[in-house]
Amino acid sequence: MNNKKINEDLINFWNSALIINDEDKKEYQKRELDYHNLSPSIKQFKALANLKKCNNVLDYGCGTCWASIIASKSGANNITAVDMGEEIIKTAKFYIDLYHTTNIKPLLINEDWLKEENDNNYDGLICSNVLDVIPLETSKKIIKEFHRILTNDAYIIISLNFYMTKEMQEKRNIQLVEDKYLFVNDILRLTNLSDDEWLDLFKPYFDLINLDYYAWPNESKETRRLFILKKRVY
Question: Is this structure's pTM higher than 0.90?
Answer without folding.
Answer: yes
